[in-house]
Design brief:
The protein folds into three domains: 4-172, Rossmann fold (3-Layer(aba) Sandwich), CATH 3.40.50.300; 178-244 and 338-368, no CATH class; 248-332, Arc Repressor Mutant, subunit A (Orthogonal Bundle). It contains 17 helices and eight strands. It has helices at residues 4-17, 34-46, 56-59, 63-72, 88-101, 132-142, 154-160, 178-185, 197-211, 215-228, 234-241, 247-261, 266-278, 284-291, 295-307, 323-332, 340-354, and strands at residues 23-27, 51-55, 111-115, 146-151, 168-172, 282-283, 311-314, 317-320.
C-alpha cells in the first residue's frame, strides 16, 4: 500500500529504530488497521526471533493466568521463574519483569507488540493492583526493550498519556484516501486487469465514501463484490454485508456492544445513539429534549459516549464517529430484524448522501465479461421489487 498508510508504517518503525527507541502508541477505531499493523511488524521480526505479538483483549483474565499465557507463548526465555506467584500483585510484577528482562537471540533487545493494551485495566479489580496502567507505563519507560501499544479507545489513551514521558509517541492511524483504497483492493480485483482506469478510480472514490476510509470495511466490500460476480457494485455489496446474516452486521454489533459495555449508563447511551441515528448532528439541548432528561444528565451521558469514541462533538453538535455504525443502528437496533428491501432502501439513502455521482455512471467490466448496455445496471442503483 502506498501513500499515507505506508508513511504511517514507516513512522512507527522509525520510532522503534530510534536511539533510544520510542514507544509508539497507535490509536484508531474499530476496523482502522491496528492489528494489521502489528501483524506486519511481527512478521518482520519473526525470522530473527525478536518480536512477540499479544492480543490482550483475548487473554487478559487474571494476572496469574495472563502471565502464564504470555510466557508460555513467548519466543523469549523467562528467567527467575522458580516458583509460581502467590498473589495477583506478584504475578503482575513478574509480568513487568519479563517485559523488561526478556532478550532476543544474541542478547539484543526484543519487541513486544501489545494489542488493545488498555484491556489490562481489568486487573485493577484485583487486590494490590489499583494503578495497573500507570505501573505498566513506568516499567516500559525504563526498559531497554522495544514496545508498540495499540488501543481503539482514543480519548482514554490521551487521558492516560497526559503525564507520560516523552518516550511515548502517540500516532493516530490515518483513514485511507481514495488512492489507498485502490491499492488495497488491487489484489482482490487481480490488479484491475479487466477494469478501465475510469472505473477503477470511481471504484476507489465510491468505496472510500461508503467506508469513511476504514480498511476493514474496504476489504469487506471488495471481497463481497468478487463473491457476488460481474454485476456487483459497492452499494449492493454493502447492502449484502449489512443484511441480517451479513458480516458487517455481526462486526458492527460487536463494536457497538463492546464499547457500550466499557462505558457507564448502558440503556441511556443506547437511547442517545438511537436518537443520533435518526438525525445528526444535534446539540445537547436537542438531545436532552428527545431523551426526556435534564441537560445536566444528558451531558454526562454524552461524555461517557465520547469516552469510548462512539460520538464526536464539533462546535457543540454531536454525531456518530463511525458513519457505517450509525447506518447499522438505524437498521438493526429495532424490535425485529429489517427485511431485505428495508436494508436496500437505507443503504441507498446512505450512499446517495456520500458517493459522488458520475455522468454517465460507469459500469465495471467485471472479470473480463463483456456486458451489453441492456444488461448493465446503473452504478449503485438497487432495484427493489
Amino acid at each position: 500500500m502506498t501513500g499515507p498508510q505506508t508513511g504511517f508504517e514507516r513512522r512507527v518503525q522509525g520510532a522503534l529504530d530510534a536511539s533510544p527507541s520510542r514507544i509508539p502508541v497507535v490509536l484508531g477505531g474499530c476496523g482502522s488497521g491496528r492489528t494489521w499493523l502489528l501483524q506486519r511488524l511481527r512478521e518482520r521480526g519473526a525470522a530473527r526471533g525478536t518480536a512477540q505479538y499479544l492480543d490482550i483483549e483475548r487473554c487478559a483474565t487474571t494476572p496469574e493466568r495472563f502471565l502464564q499465557a504470555v510466557t508460555l507463548s513467548s519466543p523469549f526465555p523467562r528467567h527467575g521463574a522458580e516458583r509460581a506467584p502467590a498473589t495477583a500483585r506478584e504475578a503482575f510484577d513478574a509480568l513487568l519483569a519479563f517485559f523488561d528482562t526478556a532478550r532476543a537471540p544474541g542478547g539484543e533487545p526484543c519487541t513486544f507488540l501489545l494489542d488493545e493494551v488498555l484491556e489490562l485495566r481489568t486487573f485493577e479489580s484485583f487486590p494490590g493492583l489499583r494503578h495497573v496502567l500507570r505501573d505498566l507505563l513506568e516499567a516500559l519507560t525504563a526498559s531497554a526493550n522495544r514496545f508498540v501499544l495499540t488501543t481503539r479507545y482514543v480519548a482514554r489513551a490521551h487521558r492516560l498519556l497526559r503525564d507520560a514521558t516523552s518516550r511515548f509517541e502517540v500516532i493516530h492511524i490515518p483513514a485511507l484516501a481514495s488512492p489507498d483504497v485502490i491499492d488495497l483492493l488491487a489484489p482482490t480485483f487481480n490488479g484491475y486487469e479487466q477494469m478501465s482506469t475510469d472505473d477503477r478510480d470511481y471504484l476507489g472514490r465510491a468505496v472510500h465514501a461508503l467506508t469513511d476510509g476504514r480498511p476493514a470495511y474496504v476489504r469487506a466490500i471488495g471481497e463481497t463484490m468478487v463473491h457476488m460476480g460481474r454485476d456487483a457494485d459497492p452499494i449492493s455489496a454493502l447492502t449484502a454485508l449489512l443484511s441480517a446474516e451479513g458480516a458487517l452486521n455481526h462486526w458492527c454489533r460487536f463494536c457497538y456492544e463492546l464499547r457500550l459495555h466499557r462505558a457507564r449508563g448502558y440503556g441511556a447511551l443506547k437511547a442517545i445513539l438511537d436518537i443520533l441515528a435518526d438525525q445528526e448532528p444535534l446539540t445537547l439541548t436537542e438531545i436532552s429534549q428527545r431523551l426526556h432528561r435534564t441537560p445536566g444528565s444528558t451531558k454526562d451521558y454524552l461524555s461517557w459516549l465520547e469516552d469510548v469514541d462512539l460520538v464526536t462533538s464539533r462546535q457543540k453538535r454531536y454525531s456518530f464517529t463511525d458513519p457505517v455504525l450509525r447506518l447499522w443502528v438505524r437498521l438493526h437496533c429495532r424490535p425485529v430484524p429489517p427485511a431485505e428491501d428495508e436494508v436496500a432502501r437505507e443503504v441507498q439513502r446512505y450512499a446517495l448522501a456520500r458517493v459522488p455521482q458520475p455522468e454517465p455512471a460507469p459500469a465495471l467490466a467485471y472479470a473480463g465479461v463483456e456486458v451489453s448496455p441492456e444488461e448493465r445496471k446503473s452504478w449503485g442503483i438497487i432495484e427493489i421489487d
